[in-house]
Amino acid sequence: MSKVGFGVLNWVVLGAYLLAMLGVGAYFTRKASKNTDSFFKAEGHIPAWAAGFSIYATTLSAITFMSTPEQAFLSDWAYAIGSFSILIIIPILVKFYIPFFRKLKVTTAYEYLEERFSPVMRAISSLLFVLYHISRVAIVIYLPIIAITSVSNINPILIACVVGGLCILYTFLGGIEGVIWSDVIQGFLLLGSALLICVLGIFYIKGGFGTVVNDVVTNHKFISGNDFNIGDLSKFVPLILAGQIFNSLYQYTGSQDVVQRYQTTATIKDTNKSMYTNGWLALITIPLFFGMGTILYSFYQHTAALPAGFNTSAVVPYFVITQMPAGVAGLVIAGIFAAAQSTIASSLNAISSCVITDFKQRFFNDKFKNSNDVTLARGIIIIAGVLGLAVAIYLLMGNASQIWNLFLSVTGIFGVPIAGIFAVGIFTKRANTVGVLTGLVLSVGLSFWVQSLNISSLLVACVAFISAFVLSYVVSLLFPGGNHDVTGLTVSTINETYVKKN
What we know:
The chain is mainly α. The protein has helices at residues 8-27, 29-32, 36-41, 48-59, 62-74, 85-104, 110-116, 119-149, 156-204, 208-218, 237-253, 256-259, 268-302, 315-323, 328-363, 373-397, 401-412, 415-427, 433-452, 457-478. Belongs to the sodium:solute symporter (SSF) (TC 2.A.21) family. It comes from Lactiplantibacillus plantarum WJL.
């Protein structure tokens, strides 16, 4: 397939966007440099709506920007059901999780695990997050670039260095406040880009929206009876919803890049408002991104044709580059990179907060007592960012993506079991350190076995969460000697005064 030129005007628009993001980071440099409270929590000065936008932009990567439309393009909207999981988990988060994070005034999510269980659980969970997110940075850079450069003559190494390098730099400069306000801009840009693709796609199709609706009905492109066929778990709607609930519980309770936002607002009421803002934005995603895939399906059925042997993972950038006017295409490609950068920047700042708070300040503060923690935090961002970027470039230069995807899945499979550990700590009083450590190991082993069956990644999520919760609790009952004081740390003691242990 011949590649399409990107054009000078598109480069100008993309360059202007990238420089604007760098400007946001530079603007907040002085405020971020005050102390770690400023660098990691923005001193609680972020408005609720902005924190909500930031959570939304963080959870929506460039991979989602392209893979969600591809799902609707190839099949239907079955996976859209998973997006409704946010309506189920937000009330649970607001009532049972966020009060603990706010009460403990945690910088990282894993501080709760130390108070509830032991320093070992804190260190293990934090280290797993760091390893997973360094690898995730590489994948978030690699996948959108490989898709875009497969249909255009953009140099992949150059664009990786520019997009990834500038993202590292503005994260380094502006701290979490710079990251959040960049997320806000990027959130508006990626939503606007998605809407523009939908509008122009309908405009270009002969018969417009009516043709799209006819294709949906004729080709079963919305929801069909097959989506409730338990014989095909890859599209079984109840499993999609359940699996996404458990995945989301990890993202919103055990993943530092999201939990970190809970402390950036002034009050718990503002934190709750930010969650509902994020929830509404997540629901908007359904018609925008799944609708985009259905519209592109109609477009390439009636108006244009895809090249022979075309890789549909690049259907969105291919449409943008070949069908949109110069300048506008550059803006939409900037929207795809905005989705990537919001995820990368959040991961880098969160990695830094874990290394500084969970390891340096917790275990090695005496050895590094003369060091400036903000300076160290910025150094960690550079190191983690360069590592992720280097791996992304290595993947772009070779054919080792399968190896790295395996590493990503190995480290990532620990995620949902950690969510089960948080849940058993909050909702039970009997869970203890021996129980949750054993439950974590057994759950990960069971999850690996289920994953090896290649049935569904969402089934893995269900097994991982449920087994971590149940096994941790059962083992804790069998070995009750290691129980901690849970005053103020569980649902049944939530209203009791909590005194932080030394």
